[in-house]
Structure of Pyridoxine 5'-phosphate synthase:
Amino acid sequence: MTKLSVNINKVATIRNARGGNVPNVPQVAVDCEKFGAEGITVHPRPDQRHITTKDVYDIKARIKTEFNIEGYPTPEFIKLIKEIRPTQVTLVPDAPDAITSNAGWDTKVNFQFLSDLADEFKAMGVRTSIFTGTDPEIIEYAAKTGTDRIELYTEPYATLYPKDPEAAILPFIEAAKIAKHLGLGINAGHDLSLENLNFFYKNIPYIEEVSIGHALISDALYLGLERTIAAYKNCLK
Ligand SMILES: CC(=O)[C@@H](O)[C@H](O)COP(=O)(O)O
Ligand SMILES: NCC(=O)COP(=O)(O)O
């Protein structure tokens, strides 16, 4: 079964536009769970432009499913993970001013850094996932760090999918096979949508979790959150 973790960054973007508490971000997290989400994902960024540090504590206090916190492992981020102890930490190599995540780690170059972090998070009982592309060598080095999982960066899949679905999925099928063979759990995310999710799932049904935010929250403007989450879960069958 592939779990759906709803990324609620964009809900915080709307809230922050006015500086008040509308929409109420932790309440939206609770409601996503009520509507069937099997996890909540947030990606607090250094400029706190959407999810704030306070949101992370407030969400942790309210949700009952899996909490996935994504981010670049600065000392502040590592401290947050130590205090919150989420279900999963996803390490992402974003520069502080990145508009959004735009690449996976070079796990060869950053091997020692990532290995030390995987040790540290695993010792505190937090599942670790490393954001990667599909290059086999990158995945081999990810496995050597001792990480529990990788998260495949699916933007290249989403971009090519409308033109050539078979070509778009091929590197992901190969990458997932290698990761599975190496004993890694596999997550996926970035730009997954109602248009491209089912094809991804059908080709790699053993993906453990997809985290989806931008398209899902956009769809919810038309369909409402409850129908939207049901529609996304329907793509994972
Ligand atoms: C790690 C990843 O793929 C991202 O999709 C991310 O969590 C989204 O971040 P933004 O919502 O800030 O674009
Ligand atoms: N890890 C990917 C994520 O959480 C959401 O990415 P997106 O759906 O907002 O592109």
